[in-house]
Every structure is written in C-alpha cells, then in structure tokens.
C-alpha cells in the first residue's frame, strides 16, 4: 500500500511539473482478463484449454506529446488457463491454473485525433511481469482442492501488448476504455525440456479514469 501511494504521488508531481506544451495525466484502471496459454508441442492427449476469467487493474501515467504519447502502467493481472471434463452423468469438473502477476507494460500510444472530447487511440509495447503466486484449483461435485504450483513457473514473464481504445475528455477527468491483446514472448515453464514452451496469451478489457 505504501509503495502504491509513493508511486501515485510521484506521478502527480511529474504531471504538475510538465511544460505547457506537454500534457500529462495519472489515473487508475481496471477490468477483465480472458487469459490462456500457448503450449508447444501440443500433445494430442491434451484437453481443449479454455480462457480463464480473472481481474486486472492498477495505475497508469500518460505523457502526451501531441500525436504520440508514452504510457507506463503498473497492473495486478491474473493469467493462466482452465479446462473442464465430465465427472459423472450431467456433472462436470474443472481444473484451473491461476497465475497472479505484477505487470508493467510500457506503451507507445498514438492519438488518432489529438484534439476533441472523444479521442480514438492505438497503442503497443513490451510488458514485464513478476509472478506473485500460482495456484492450481480442482473443482468437482465432491468439493474443491487447491495447491501451490508456483515452482512450476518462472518468476518473470516478458510479453508484448497491442490494442486500441477511446478517451473521453470531461471538465473534471479523462475517462478511458480500451481493449488489448497480450502476446507472451518468454517461456514461463520452469525446468522445461528442450523444445517445450508455455507462453501467455489473452485479451483484456479495461476502463479507467485519469486526472
């Protein structure tokens, strides 16, 4: 909590010291991850993995230079995957891998319309993640079991982000809406044998407010 307050105050200070021809804002955002993993090679015996729904949210700082802007973010993001299988007649069971990260995307943002109350934007850039915890959850009609699976994964994950959104300028705040796709670059599987890889992938939708 203290680190969050320090980062927010630092961003506000930087925004206040910006020259007149440069605009800056700081804010918060949150939304939903639809996360999955790209696993290679795919064994024919592997189940059909489904998207894992999870939270994503945090703080952002935007430095606008007219047409182009730079936007670093600090996000809590749940990634992973899930699959379902038949447990009994008309009953299903599921297994979830839930990986919780602190992610820091550093985005280059292009303002399609730099002026006006509604501004479309497109953006992209690298993302750096640090694994906080990883949990496996088995859920069936007989109950739920959980297990710490953090040792199965690398502590860090590198990816890329591409997306687009809308910014709504009001007299009091800047409202944002964006959709983005996360592309994993690094192999997150610990102690992987040669040729085996697991990389994050997924789509996110977030809303935010900036000042």
Provide a quick synopsis of the model.
The protein contains one helix and nine strands; from the N terminus they run H-E-E-E-E-E-E-E-E-E. It is mainly beta and 211 residues long.
Verbal overview:
This protein is mainly β and 211 residues long. It has a single domain (2-210), classed as Beta Barrel (Porin). 7% of the residues lie in helices and 67% in strands. The protein is built from one helix and nine strands; from the N terminus they run H-E-E-E-E-E-E-E-E-E. An eight-stranded antiparallel barrel has the order 1-2-3-4-5-7-8-9. It starts with a helix and ends with a strand. The mean pLDDT is 90.
Compute the number of structural domains: 1
User: Could you report the average pLDDT, rounded to the nearest whole number?
Assistant: 90
* Uncertain parts: none
Shape: elongated
Strand content: over 45%
Query: Could you please say which CATH topology applies here?
Result: Porin
Enumerate the strands of the largest sheet in spatial order, edge to edge or round the barrel: 1-2-3-4-5-7-8-9
The SS-based structural class is mainly beta
Number of helical regions: 1
In which range does the helix fraction lie?
A: under 10%
| Rg of Cα set | 20 Å
CATH class: Mainly Beta
Number of strands: 9
Query: How far apart, in Å, are the first and last alpha carbons?
Result: 20 Å
Quaternary state reads: single chain
Second CATH tier, the architecture: Beta Barrel
Main sheet overview: 8 strands, antiparallel, barrel
H-E order: HEEEEEEEEE
């Amino acid at each position: 909590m203290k680190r969050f307050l320090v980062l927010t105050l630092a961003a506000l200070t930087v925004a206040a010291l910006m020259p007149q021809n440069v605009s800056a804002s700081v804010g918060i955002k949150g939304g939903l991850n639809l996360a999955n993993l790209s696993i290679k090679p795919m064994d024919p015996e592997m189940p059909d993995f489904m998207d894992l729904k999870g939270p994503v949210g945090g703080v952002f700082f935007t430095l606008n230079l007219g047409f182009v802007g730079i936007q670093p973010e600090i996000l809590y993001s749940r990634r992973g995957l899930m699959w379902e299988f038949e447990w009994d007649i008309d009953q299903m069971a599921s297994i979830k891998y839930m990986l919780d990260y602190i992610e820091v995307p550093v985005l280059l943002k292009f303002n399609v319309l730099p002026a006006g109350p509604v501004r479309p934007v497109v953006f992209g850039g690298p993302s750096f993640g640090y694994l906080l915890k990883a949990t496996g959850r088995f859920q069936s009609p007989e109950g739920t079991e959980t297990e710490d699976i953090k040792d199965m994964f690398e502590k860090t994950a590198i990816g890329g982000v591409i997306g687009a959104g809308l910014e709504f300028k009001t007299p009091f705040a800047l409202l944002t809406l964006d959709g983005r796709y996360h592309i994993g670059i690094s192999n997150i599987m610990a102690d992987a044998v040669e040729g085996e890889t697991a990389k994050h992938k997924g789509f996110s939708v977030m809303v935010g407010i900036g000042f």
